[in-house]
Amino acid sequence: MFYLFLDIDGVLHPDNSPPQKTLCYAGNLAGVLRDVDPLGRIRIVISSTWRVKFSIEQLKAMLPSEISERLVGVTPDHIERPGPYVRQREIEEWLACNAPGERWMAVDDWSMIFDKACPNLFLVPGFEADDGGGLTEGVSLHLKKRLAVELNGPVSG
């Protein structure tokens, strides 16, 4: 298995977007998953603060089926124990308890909650981007390429 740790605000919609734009890029992620992993090897774990606001059942109901069918959990919440690389620590703790040694990638728009040397971070442009950030069509293409390499190895050529 391969685990994708998913942030929501700033990834599945631009940060501070109006309610009608909530999850507007979820379809882009669904398309990436459909194209790059038709066998369902990628499992999704929510690492977003949404995991504190909503139950896993509520999250599954909000997301497209291509995402919700792969959703297997949420990371622990270390808000009470802040410190450096808090999101990365939450992910590593989830992996240690649920999938030790498995390969993973985090899709997030906040680099400061990960170690600068973290090779597992796919950084989505944030609100400072010209288009408001998020998993836009162009960013989705980059994610698709990176996931294809992660799942299948480098393309020879």
Give your account of this protein's structure:
The protein is an alpha/beta fold. The protein has a single domain, classed as Rossmann fold. It is built from six helices and five strands. It has helices at 26-36, 50-53, 56-62, 65-68, 86-98, 137-152; strands at residues 2-6, 42-46, 71-74, 103-108, 121-123. A five-stranded parallel β-sheet has the order 3-2-1-4-5, with helices on both faces. α1 links the parallel β1 and β2 (42-46). α1 packs parallel to α6. It is globular, with a radius of gyration of 15 Å. It starts with a strand and ends in a 5-residue tail after the last helix.
- The assembly state of the depicted protein chains is single chain
CATH architecture: 3-Layer(aba) Sandwich
CATH class: Alpha Beta
Count all strands and give the number.
5
What pattern of helices and strands is seen along the backbone?
A: EHEHHHEHEEH
Gyration radius over CA: 15 Å
Instruction: List unreliable stretches of 5+ residues.
Output: none
